[in-house]
Structure formats: C-alpha cells, structure tokens
Amino acid sequence: MKKTNILLTFVIMISMLALMTGCDDKTSVGETAADLVSLYNYVPDSATGLFTINFNKLTSISAFDKMKDDMKFEDISKKQKLFKNYQDFIEKTGIDPKKDIKSAVVAIFSELDEKEPELSLIANLNYDKQKLLVLLKESGKDFQTSDFNGMTMYSGKDEKGKEAGFIFLSDNIITAGTIEGVKKVAGLAGKGGKNILSDPKMKSYIDKVGGSSIFSFVFRFPEKMKGMKGNSMIQADLSKAEAIYGNVDFNSNTWMGKFVLVSYNEEGNTNLVTTLNGLKGLGAMGGPEIAELINNINISATADSIVLSFKISSELLEKLKAKAEEKTKNFGN
User: Fold this and answer.
1) pTM to 2 decimal places
2) DSSP letters along 254-265, please?
C-alpha cells in the first residue's frame, strides 16, 4: 500500500538494524521509556498485543550509521519506488530518524496466527504534515479523505484491493495501518476509554519488558492455541498459557534477549524444556557456527513460565550470515 508505505517505510528500514552486525553502543536511552508510556496510552485495551521500538537507543548504536550508508531501498521492498537512498528519504519526507523519531508502537488487534492481522502503528516523531501530504500526491496513487471523530483519515487501496489508512493524531503523533486498527487507536485518542495499561496483567508484562531495550513485545496467548500441541517428537502442554513477552537489546558488540511464555503449569513447563534442551544437542550437529549459536541459547522452566534467553555476538552473526549466503549460492547452482 504505497500511501501508507511512505509513513511506514522508516519503521521497516530502521528495524532492519536487528540484522546488522559489527557495531558498538554509543549512548544511553535518555527519555524513551517515558515516550513509550505516552504511546501506550493510545493502545486500546482490546489489543491482543504490541511491539515497541526504542528509536532513541536504536539510532544511537553505530549499526545505524553503517546501515544508512549500505542499505539499498530496493532490498526492503521490490515495489518501493519512492526513495533512492537514506538521504533521499530524509529530503522527501523531512524526517531524519536519528533526530526526529522518538519511539513507535505497533498495536495488534488480531490473533498471532492471522495471515492479515488488524494492526496500527503509532509513532512519536517530528514531522511536516504538508510535506508528507505532497509526497502522497506525488506517489501517483489516489487516496481519499474522510472524517473520523473530528479527525481527517487518509485512506486508499493497493493493487489487491486491501485498504489502509492513517491519521495525524497530533503535532507529533501519527497512526497508520489497517482501517479498523487506525480507527480503534484514533477512537481512543478522540473519545477516550481504556488503554492497554488499564489491564493489570498486560501492564505487569509491559513493566517487565521495560522501555530501555531496542525491541520489546507483549502478546496475550491465543485461546485457540491452548491445549496439547505437537507431534510424536515434541509435545507441549499449553493449556494454561497466558501470555508471551520479551525484549532484544544490544550491548558490548552483542545482541541479547529474553522471551518468556507465561504458563502456570510447572510439570508441563519442565517436560517441554527437557525436550527442547534435548533437541539442542541434535541441532549442534549442524556445524561449528550452529553449535556456537545453540550453546548461547538457554532454556529454563519455572512453576509459572518457560524462559528462553540468548547472547549472540556480532562476530557469530557474521559467520552465520556468510554460511547462509554460501548455502543459498550452492543451492542456486
């Protein structure tokens, strides 16, 4: 959807830094945690989950500078024709991610396994409204405007007829995504109501992931995914699963993270972790790089959760990337 791609491309672009390596931290987070709390106020309590991006920290690591110099926009989207490079993006949108974007939250309103999820991006940034609207018109695609609770919604359809839209909620807040997702966010912003922080359980998980990591997420566990799952090799008792949350951060040339499945099922948790740890041994047979990767992944169980944590150096990521590229090249021959 090229109209919303103009507003969403910078999120995709910067999120790709998670795949970049060979970098060191530069500065601390600053006030991003407060920025995220502000954005959470725009997420309705009906959301099934959210994904947050700490732009202050993400743009402070040297991987950001490496990416903006090396990145080719055609690698992000083959259909994306609007921007030639990073500098062209800044000039056309008036948005410099290093200076203008504070934080972003993607609110999800459908189940985790939906192929076309209902969602809305909420971004806290400095922007020039008129410059973005001019760019929309120059994209060559028609878009419509309509009133929603006293706010102007801009919407349009892609080649497959899928509709998307966005709303300027304030001088520094934009929401963009599926029509219903945008309406839910804008409805909360305009008429008020309960946000995600009013749900005690979700708030507790959000507090646990915090706002200092580069990426973090919290999702309610889907009802239809509960129960006994798996096959003859691995069985998982997910009957008491409640939520999944976690974060990913970068420090001292190392990516690190923790993913937690909240499940009040001590026996089921222990059995699943025992099986997973057994499978790690088989995976280590995939070669020295894979063995090193697996050795840096820890899986443990408690009475109320299953925890997966990892630490992966940039050097190891480069090795894995080279190995994957070699396999791809050989497969093509």
Assistant:
1) 0.82
2) EEEEEEEEEE--
